[in-house]
Design a protein that fits this description.
The protein is an alpha+beta fold. Strand 22 (about 400-405), helix 12 (about 410-420) and strand 23 (about 430) form a beta-alpha-beta unit. Bound molecules: glycyl-adenosine-5'-phosphate (GAP).
Length: about 500
């Protein structure tokens, strides 16, 4: 039976092989922040490339965007984040540790699933919070908590050098709002017509109360989000479309089907803006050892565009009250829905409406962790343990490693020529140190799908040994055919 992968195995491999390091490790580390090392950055870039390829490049109805992290304070006011983006926390009276209320567990209870990401304080505060049987995760005392209180999750910073006119700004807690704020710009400058989507990958920041499990939940992370704008009434069709597309993306990149499923949100769990939401969950090897959110797919209705339209109006009214001329034509309150700057005019149906939005929102770091966990394997080979990462070719940080069998007889020169040739097309690695068996094992641990060895026979017939990671099968390929052979196998 296959050994169950433990998170410790992944953390250890990531550190040993330079995938992921603790941030600021030389100063003792910074909790919940991580740095991607030489292999990790390649993996992460490949996850982003695969997402972009599937969501933007391969589609005719999605365009990309890259917004700034700092945005006008009105963005967060309109989106609801300024007032509502908080977790409900309780402090243990014994040890003063603060924990998210929805993460507290009862003494003898089974470990609860961790499904709630962030809660709308208005909703949760209204619910009775019985913490009398809950256990402090730090000191283990039962039922000794303060009243739950909201804890704001957005990081604050100051913009501007002068004390008088510096402004408190927020680091974005999601990339989505930059897309909504640019909806009009994209409509006015491209040929897109509804239905269409705007996609973005970028950093987000949340002052999470509970961080956990390596890169699963951190305070600085990367999101890949698509806001797909559609006509009201077609939203359920597009919701189903994106559910299927996003689920298949993970399967196509090699995640095992038995480790992936959907979880529908209950109505009392839905975010304030959502009509429907489903999570793609992965069976991560931590917490209760089971399903955790990888990506959320939400039907956000017309909430965000409507909110921003109201926000523009409020700001413009304020400018007007100060005697300034506003830049955007104001719609009056009654006509707001139909005439606002974030409405859409369908010139074929001669109809104006505020589009509905379907949002598949994925975490790049979380996906990278799932791909690492799923690819990790240990097997016994001739009495030795072989650790390997069975990455999908598209995700493998290095596609091919090139070795001379020995450092003499012209083998390094031939191997170097091959390396210089292949690296123009994909990421390669050259290694001439140590026994060739050890070099193969190092590449197995890095998830490199192919190793190429220049040996004695290469000098005679211009062929090399091509060794495949998963099967360890070795074949001979002529040096002239190597590039086309690999490109076909790697689908590059
Ligand atoms: N725009 C919607 C939104 O941000 P979310 O469920 O809060 O929804 C979407 O976040 C995805 O972002 C999650 O499914 C997860 O993959 C990732 N994510 C959220 N918070 C995270 C954190 N603190 N650390 C790592 N990834 C996170």
């Amino acid at each position: 039976m296959a050994k169950l992968t433990k998170l410790e195995d992944i953390v250890s491999l990531c550190k040993r092989r330079g995938f992921i390091f603790q941030s600021s490790e030389i100063y003792g580390g910074l909790a919940s922040c991580y740095d991607y090392g030489p292999l990790g950055v390649e993996l992460k870039n490949n996850v982003k490339k695969a997402w972009w390829k599937s969501v933007v490049q391969m589609r005719d109805d999605v365009v990309g965007l890259d917004c700034s992290i700092l945005m006008h304070p009105m963005v967060w006011k309109s989106s609801g984040h300024a007032d509502k983006f908080a977790d409900l926390i309780a402090e243990c009276k014994k040890c003063n540790t603060r924990t998210r209320v929805d993460h507290l567990k009862e003494e003898a209870a089974e470990q609860a699933d961790e499904h709630t990401e962030h809660v709308d304080i208005d909703t949760v505060a209204a619910q009775a919070q019985d913490l009398s049987k809950k256990l402090c995760p730090n000191c283990g005392v039962v039922g000794q908590f303060t009243e739950p209180m909201p804890f704001k999750l957005m990081f604050e910073t100051q913009m501007g050098a002068n004390v008088d006119d510096s402004m408190t700004m927020h680091l974005r807690p999601e990339t989505a709002q930059g897309i909504f704020a640019n909806f009009r710009n994209v409509l006015d400058t491209t040929r897109v017509r509804i239905p269409f989507g705007i996609a973005q990958i970028g950093k987000s920041f949340r002052n999470e109360v509970t961080t956990k499990a390596f890169i699963f939940r951190t305070r600085e992370f990367e999101q890949a989000e698509l806001e797909f704008f559609c006509e009201p009434g077609t939203d359920e069709h597009w919701f189903e479309h994106w559910k299927e597309a996003r689920f298949n993306w993970y399967l196509d990149l090699g995640l095992k089907k038995e480790n992936l499923h959907f979880r529908e949100h209950d109505s009392d769990e839905l975010a304030h803006y959502a009509k429907g939401c489903v999570d793609v969950e992965y069976r991560f090897p931590f917490g209760s050892g089971d399903w955790q959110e990888l990506e959320g797919i939400a039907n956000r209705t017309d909430f965000d565009l409507r909110q921003h339209q109201r926000g523009i109006r409020t700001l413009n009214k304020w400018y007007e009250s100060k005697g300034y001329i506003t830049r955007i034509e104001l719609a009056d309150e009654a006509a707001e829905y139909l005439k606002g700057p974030l409405s859409y005019f369908d010139d074929q149906k001669k109809q104006r409406y505020i589009p509905y939005v379907i949002e598949p929102s994925a975490g790049i770091d979380r996906s990278a962790l799932a791909f690492l966990v799923d690819a990790y394997d240990e097997e016994q080979v001739r009495g030795e343990t072989r650790n390997l990462l069975r990455f999908h070719h598209a995700l493998a940080p290095v596609k091919a490693a090139i070795f001379p069998l020995v450092k003499k007889d012209g083998m390094p020169e031939i191997a170097t020529n091959i390396y210089n040739d292949l690296k123009k097309y994909f990421n390669c690695f050259y290694d001439q140190k140590g026994a060739v068996g050890r070099r193969y094992r190092r590449q197995d641990e890095a998830g490199t799908p192919f190793c190429i060895t220049v040996d004695g026979q290469s000098l005679e017939d211009n062929t090399v040994t091509l060794r495949e990671r998963d099967s360890m099968e070795q074949t001979r390929v002529s040096t002239g055919q190597l590039l086309s052979h690999l490109r076909e196998k790697l689908d590059i």
